[in-house]
């Protein structure tokens, strides 16, 4: 487990880069990521895609609201194996007043595309405590002013 709370922590995800324009997360495939037939569960990629996009979207939105996932579409390109390190990169496709659309690539340690997806986020008019933003990125703060 990592210092990150929730499912990301359970999955062993670490954020290696975080800004309003790009978030990069990484995890290593282990037994906890496998489905009953011994291969990585596709839901792991879906979950990490959504949380990585949500962190990116929240950093971009800052304290002006809170983001929630409304759609998650992930395509599985090739199978990873236990011990592979997966890097997930979220980049924006569209960021607007009420919604955002993020593109995600999951690659292995050799740069091969393992999964690719899109996550749509809704921007809700609710407040999020600023300390929760920095909780995901360590030292990153001030995202509302970074736009």
Describe this structure in words.
The structure is a single chain. The protein has helices spanning 6-11, 42-61, 130-137, and strands at 14-19, 22-28, 66-76, 85-95, 99-107, 113-124. By secondary structure, it is an alpha+beta fold. A hairpin with a 3-residue loop joins strand 4 (85-95) and strand 5 (99-107). It is globular and about 45 Å long. It starts with 5 loop residues before the first helix and ends in a 10-residue tail after the last helix.
Number of helices: 3
Enumerate the spans where pLDDT stays under 50 for 5 or more consecutive residues.
139-147
> C-alpha Rg, in Å?
15 Å
Terminal Cα span: 32 Å
Shape descriptor reads globular
**How many beta-strand elements?**
6
Structural class: alpha+beta
Q: Average the pLDDT over all residues and give the rounded result.
A: 89
């Amino acid at each position: 487990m990592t210092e990150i709370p929730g499912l990301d922590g359970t999955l062993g995800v670490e954020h290696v880069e975080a800004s309003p324009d790009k978030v990069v997360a990484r995890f290593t495939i282990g037994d906890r990521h496998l489905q009953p037939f011994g291969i990585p569960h596709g839901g792991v990629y879906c979950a990490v895609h959504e949380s990585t996009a949500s962190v990116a979207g929240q950093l971009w939105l800052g304290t002006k609201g809170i983001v929630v996932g409304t759609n998650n579409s992930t395509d599985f390109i090739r199978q990873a194996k236990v011990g592979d390190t997966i890097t997930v990169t979220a980049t924006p496709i569209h960021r607007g007043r009420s919604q955002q659309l993020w593109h995600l690539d999951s690659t292995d340690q050799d740069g091969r595309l393992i999964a690719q997806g899109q996550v749509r986020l809704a921007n809700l008019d609710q407040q999020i405590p600023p300390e929760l933003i920095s909780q995901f990125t360590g030292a990153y703060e001030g995202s509302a002013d970074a736009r």
